[in-house]
Amino acid sequence: MTLLVQISAELNLNPVICSACKGDCCKYQPGITAPRQWGETTKEMVKNLTGAFATGRWAVDWWEGDTEPDGDLDDVYFVRPHAVGYDQDTLFHGAGYDRQCNFLGKTGCELAPEARPDGCLQLVPTPSHKNCLPKGSPSKREYAVLWRPYQDVIMKAAAAVGASKYDRETDAVTPWWSSSRW
């Protein structure tokens, strides 16, 4: 069952390159979703996120600190697929580095192309299979900015499945490039 709302973004897919690659980009880190992928209204978003969180295959990650200079948030949360290696019962976890997306199967992504996270859809396959480059894709911080108005939506959906932002699982070391300190 597809949980994401279909988006109209250009799909940067190349079946020949992607099938030969076997998901190198997916082995690095799960892509980040955009809020619009979960629904058009906050009610629809809460419903879709609750259903997704209940599967154990989706997670809440965060930008450390507020995305606004004078903001009052400790962290800004966003949604991405669960990363392999984390307890699937823990909804809140940082994706870490070199954490494979749980939707990567033996033949590639298990999600239909139009149901993949926005961050994945923005990647342009390269023949070298070394590093698919984003085509105008937002950074982690920019995705957090997109999600900032929907913090209550994420928390309502998390609460509906019995999760709390105070029950986090993190890697021991935060890579320098994913920290808001830089």
What does this structure look like?
The protein is of the alpha+beta class and 182 residues long. The chain has one domain. The chain is 26% helix and 14% strand. The strands form four sheets. It has a two-stranded antiparallel sheet with strand order 1-2. It has a two-stranded parallel sheet with strand order 3-8. It has a two-stranded antiparallel sheet with strand order 4-5. A hairpin with an 8-residue loop joins strand 6 (123-124) and strand 7. Helix 3 (42-55) packs across helix 6. The chain is globular, with a radius of gyration of 16 Å. 35% of the residues are buried. Mean pLDDT is 80; it is low at 1-9 and 171-182.
Structural topology:
Blueprint: H1 15-21, H2 24-28, H3 42-55, E1 58-64, E2 75-81, E3 92-93, E4 104-105, E5 108-109, H4 118-121, E6 123-124, E7 133-134, H5 140-147, H6 151-160, E8 168-169
Parallel strand pairs: 3-8
Antiparallel strand pairs: 1-2, 4-5, 6-7
Helix pairs in contact: 3-6
